[in-house]
Write a structure and sequence with these properties.
globular; mainly alpha; 0% strand; 113 residues
């Protein structure tokens, strides 16, 4: 884990403190929250909502909610769909959140694909 990046993430995630569904620590997600967010992963989005999600998939640092299609992919993917549906997040807003919440452990410029 890149310690400096981790400290930046923790600080940046404070901007989302008013949203209970956003984990305040990308490496310590409570199991009940992870389970709930994974449930949103299968949420069917409207055409406009899907466009916002697709934008985030294309523009986020990892080209998705995580570097690989693991459990975190479904957690942050579900979080994205939830935020688009309930808080009308744009693709850019979701991109910003995914970039700060990534849990792949390295510097921003490393892509794991």
């Amino acid at each position: 884990m890149d310690e400096a990046r981790y400290r930046q993430q923790i600080e940046a995630l404070k901007d989302y403190a008013d949203i209970a569904e956003v984990p305040p620590d990308p490496y310590d997600i409570p199991a009940p929250l992870a389970h709930r967010l994974m449930g949103y992963y299968t949420l069917t989005l409207t055409k406009e909502e899907q466009a916002a999600y697709d934008y985030a998939m294309e523009h986020s640092d990892m080209q998705g909610p995580c570097c690989c299609k693991c459990w975190r992919w479904k957690v942050y993917g579900g979080l994205g769909k939830y935020l688009i549906r309930t808080r009308h997040y744009t693709g850019q807003q979701l991109t910003d959140l995914w970039n700060v919440g990534q849990g792949c452990g390295g510097p921003v410029d490393i892509r794991m694909h």
